[in-house]
Amino acid sequence: MKSVKYIGLDVHQATISIAVLDASGKLVMQSVIATQVSTILDFIHGVRGELHLTLEEGVSAHWLYGLLKPHVHSVMVCDARKSARMNGGNKSDRIEARKLAELLRAGQLSAVFHDEVGVRTLRELARSYLALTQDVTRVMNRIKGIYRSQAIPCAGKRVYTQRHRSACLEQLEQPGQRRRADRLYAQLDLLQPLRQQARKELLAESQKYPIRHTLQQIPVVGPIRAALLIALIQTPHRFRTKRLLWTYSGLGVKTESSADYVFQHGELRQSKKNFATRGLKQNHNHQLKYVFKSMAQAASITAGPLQDYYRGLLAKGTRPEMARLTLARKLAAIVLILWKKGASFDPTKLTTQAA
Predict the structure, then answer these.
(1) Are the beta carbons of 14 and 34 closer than 8 angstroms?
(2) Are residues 33 and 161 in the same domain?
């Protein structure tokens, strides 16, 4: 019978601190190795038994997950922020590695999804497209910021076009501002072709996934959003319920309360004025939240069943920002149902389709 070993890795750019525990929790080995493929595999092959390994989510987590998975019994990439023990006490590389191994043995770690489901290329192309989109938007905002600082009207996209740039620059009286704006225009001219190329590559790669046709049945989901949803979600089966997807997308509501109960006449009763705070969870996938928020924004201004649903919320007295949040949650739930069941979008079932 193979002995069971629990291995914790504290990963850094140059080195990895490793702690190995046996089934009883005794520390049997602790070492520091170089962050190199050959060194890592040599160490793992030198440890006998049934190996269960964990490491924290980070820049190198996906690479290490793919590297180590074929050589050990199980690999868990964990979110150490959810463990009070990892956040308290003394800290060092050796201590962190041992804590990870001990928490893995005790089953007290929260796993972060990592798996190869055939969307790695699409995911990297999606990240490239989103990063370039953010860069283009940032440069555009800086250009308009220069004109707004001088009270120069710059509404719309006219200020970005080659045809009207000279006229816009002439309105800037300060030479330094003109030179700054001119450099920003040069930066924009470099970024826009790169973004267009990234868009073409993303769309071409997304053609490999038939599920895009199902997702594009949703009125506000076009080819780009369908590709982004596939890349960022990867597989719908990682989310057992819609609430798990809401939490992962930053659309889940977090409630914290205190003083929930009081004693009245010697009896314990629930307080009518308990102190409760509500807000959205901060630990989430920011790119996926951006996609769902943009979908909700588009649905709220585009005629159709989704806009009717949004207006119905407003008619009930829901604030616009909360109505858009509710619409984003509805869209996320619809995406999950259509993807899991292979169903078709039916606007007549909009109120129950995501239930």
Answers:
(1) yes
(2) no
